[in-house]
Amino acid sequence: MNVVSQLRFMTTPTSVAISVAVVLLTAAIGFYAWQRSGYQLSRGLQEVLRTLIVGCIALLFNQPEWVEEYRPDERPQVAILWDDSRSMQTRDVRLDETTSRDIVSRADAIAPLIQSEAWKELEGRVDVVIEPMGADETGTDLHSPLVELPERMKSLLGVVLMSDGDWNQGSPPIEAASKLRLKDIPVFTVQAGSSTKLPDVELTSLDLPTFGIASKIVRVPFSIDSSLPREYVTTVTLKTSEGETLTKDVRVKPMGRTTDSISWKPVTEGDYTVTLDVPLHEEESITDNNTRTAPIAIRQEKLKVLIVESFPRWEYRYLRNALSRDPGVEVSCLLFHPGLSKPGGGSKDYIKEFPNGIEELAEYDVVFLGDVGVEAGQLTEEDCRLIKGLVEQQASGLILMPGWTGRQLSLMDTELEDLFPVMLDPLQEAGWGSRTPSQLELTERGRRSLLTKLADTQEENVQVWETLPGFQWYAAVTRSKAGTDVLAVHSTMSNEFGRLPLLVTRTFGAGKVLFMGTDGAWRWRKGVEDKYHYRFWGQVIRWMAYQRNMAKGETMRLFYTPEQPEIGQTIQLSAHVMEASGEPVSQGDVLARITSESGNMETIRFTKDDNEWGVFQGEYIPREPGQHSVRLTCKQTGASLETGFFVQGQEMEQIGKPARPEVLEEMARVTNGLMVQPGEIEEIIKSLSNRPLPPMSVRRLQLWSHPISAGFVIILLGGFWIWRKWTGLI
After folding, report:
1. Which residues fall within 8 angstroms of residue 308, CB to CB, at 6 or more apart?
2. Spatial distance between the Cα atoms of 537 and 548, rounded to a whole number of angstroms
């Protein structure tokens, strides 16, 4: 930085003439006074001082300033930034629309512009700096390089950004553009790529469950995105690591998303790897996004189910038999029969009383509440509070199955009222009965639900539900609550809110709730025995207990959402920690050590929820795809749990995605820049050439109005007056 200092006056011809005239007149008067005094030395000196004072005032009258000019040593700079990310390899740029030249990649389209020869017209006036930017191993950040430029280049005149506008890391680029605007630095953008997606078929998701049960059907949902202009039929292939192969014909929608699933029935336990493949279409431009792989653990599971009922009605009897015969279910029954001297029953499945305390109730994965309520000899308000905590905190399931005595209405006055997915009519406690059977009719959501899947295809499933034996009693339901999923409604009955909802689910806290508004599911056995009845309740039980049993040990459980996370997606971790006696841990240091496939390790410290259920919460954001191992430990109990989860590995930088010109256009507009195509950079060069060079920095010290100048004149005037007083002239 060069500094040039000089004294300057803000004069006009008039001010100079007045100043000279006043000084000369004062000098003439002083000479005359000195002559009249006989040329006394002291009198002559006094007149010289008088003339000096007038001269100083005349000097200040012409506004003297001390000016320092700070001139930068370096020339102004223009930064040329070009996007070097993987998405720039997409071939969707036609350089000449009037000819049939081959389409080139985005990187090839801007390749001539990253050479210094393209900017020679600017080099005589400014320094041109050409740099790559935007990409690392995980994604593109357009924000940080732009924000850092003014710090590195102190005389930045403008920025040229050549990119497809696609960013997936860091803050939005518009924030960087706003900061550059405050510094009067325009951003000129060059669009690389087409905003229209290339013809492609992409397997976007494979939502494989974390675990499955041996000899039970595992539903494997998947989604296919197509940008092809026509619908077509393809055969999706599922392969397991054990060599099993399943296929399914799928009709792929044009310019949209197709969602479907494959049902797989694993036979043996073990850790499997499942690969789903969509065949390449002849019109596809991208060939590396048609396959996905995910792991799944197949195991034998023993789910604990508690059934609480009053009268041993037919629905209860057949439900108990169905669950007792399921090898994966351990059932406990509590029967509050008015005719019994005390609660219980006559077989080993029965218990004598409701579980006493959290440690006993926490063993159950699913609780059925039949036609029971809060009254003498049945449930207490404390029992209801514990059931609510079991569902909300420990991810257990609750199934509500009211009956004709209407006892469940009394639960609406307890803490369980929040869990009900429907509103019951308090004026019709006994519900409604009819001699003529009625049918359940699936809703659109019910047709897609795993719970209501009684056949392998959706068309067959709807037909099965239409032919199931009907029911002759249903609960007096008025409507479903907000945030619930209605799976089936009454086929004919309705009110001001629409069809009466009879099969409704909801999520409450960490657990799930299902309301079954009829007691006729046992009739589904007619003519087919256990085929549909067992399948339905088996699916319900496992759906409700799934999250709770993702990973469990003797005294610890761990579950997380979402089940199949993606890179950068926050995973909510919940840990249930108990003492060896089964009592929940009230305070403790719970840690999870998560290790990725590459060996990177991160420790998550859990925080205690404000409750009595021993629940600890944590969060984790995966940065890498693939299998992650988890070791959960509690310092106080010394217990540990080994498990893992799979992060779907979709690269953030993908070839074939459409460009985002709207991002570039907004950045140029905010900074008063310009967006052009690769063949139009002359417009940018012209705009940069017309930009004024950064002005030099100037510092001015106004001497004419400075306090020191005024003080100096006052001192001279005071001295002059004292001297004249001393010599007797005043």
Report:
1. 334, 336, 354, 367, 368, 369, 370, 372, 379
2. 18
SS3 406: coil
* Cα–Cα–Cα angle for 85, 87, 89, rounded to 5 degrees: 95
| DSSP 8-class letter at 348 | T
Q: Which domains does the chain have, with CATH numbers?
A: 2-71+699-726 (no CATH), 77-194+656-689 (3.40.50.410), 201-299 (2.60.40.10), 303-548 (3.40.50.880), 551-647 (2.60.40.1930)
Cα–Cα distance for residue pair 204/289, rounded to 1 Å: 8
Residue 589 scores a pLDDT above 60? yes
300, two tokens: 């034998």
* Residue 113 CA, distance from chain mean position: 36
Handedness of CA 282, 283, 288, 293 (dihedral sign): negative
The model's pTM is 0.61
Six-digit token pair at 255? 């310019």
Per-residue pLDDT, 98: 46
CA 284 to chain centre: 30
Burial of 79 (0-12, 13-18, 19+ CB in 10 A): buried
Q: Two tokens at 533?
A: 């009845």
- Within 10 angstroms of residue 206's Cβ, the number of other Cβ atoms is 20
Closest CA to 334 of 285, 372, 282: 372
CB distance 218 to 212 below 8 Å: yes
CA dist 693 and 225 (Å) reads 51
Of 550 and 694, the structure prediction assigns the larger pLDDT to 550
**Helices 41-61 and 707-726, axial angle in degrees (round to 10):** 160
Contact assessment for residue 68 and residue 5, using Cβ atoms and an 8 Å cutoff = yes
- Collapsing DSSP to helix, strand or coil, 171 comes out as coil
Q: Rounded to whole angstroms, how far apart are CA atoms 467 and 242?
A: 38
In eight-state DSSP terms, residue 487 is E
Locate 311 and state its tokens: 């009268």
Cα–Cα distance measured from residue 416 to residue 536, given in angstroms and rounded to the nearest whole number: 25
Query: Exposed, middle or buried, 222 (CB in 10 Å: 0-12/13-18/19+)?
Result: buried
Distances from the Cα of 225 to the Cα of 239, 274, 290, 309, 458, angstroms: 21, 20, 10, 48, 21
Query: Which residues lie closer than 8 Å to 528 by C-beta, 6 or more apart?
Result: none
Tell how strand 556-561 and strand 571-577 pair up. antiparallel
Give residue 370's pLDDT: 92
Residue with tokens 């009222």: 417
The DSSP-derived string for 594-649 is EE-TT--EEEEE-EE-SSSS-EEEEEE---S-EEEEEEEEETTT--EEEEEEEEB-
| Alpha carbon distance 382, 400 (integer Å) | 18
Q: What is the pLDDT of residue 188?
A: 94
Average pLDDT over every residue of 508-537? 89
- Signed CA dihedral, 718, 724, 727, 730: sign only: negative
Sheet with 697-702, edge to edge strand ranges: 2-9, 64-71, 697-702
- As a whole number, mean pLDDT of residues 62-79 equals 80
Note if the bond before 76 is cis, omega within 30 degrees: no
Q: How far apart are the first and last CA of the chain?
A: 56
CA dist 473 and 438 (Å) reads 8
Measured from the Cβ of residue 564, the count of other Cβ atoms closer than 10 Å reads 17
Q: What is the 3-state secondary structure (H, E, C) of 69-88?
A: EEECCCCCEEEEEEECCHHH
d(CA 288, CA 278): 11
Q: Which of 110, 93, 123 is nearest to 161 (CA)?
A: 110
Helix (H, G, I), strand (E, B) or coil at 237: strand
Q: Which residue has the tokens 């006989």?
A: 38
